[in-house]
Amino acid sequence: MKLFNTKWKALNKQQFGRLGEYFAKMLFTSYGWYVYTSEVDDHAIDFVAEPSDGKGYYGVQVKCVSTGSDTCNIPKSKTIIDDKHLICYLRFIEGELPNAYIFRTSEWTNPKYDKILGSNDYKSEKTKSNPEYNIKFSKKNEALFSELTAEKFFEGFSEGKL
Question: Exposed, middle or buried, 141 (CB in 10 Å: 0-12/13-18/19+)?
Answer without folding.
Answer: middle
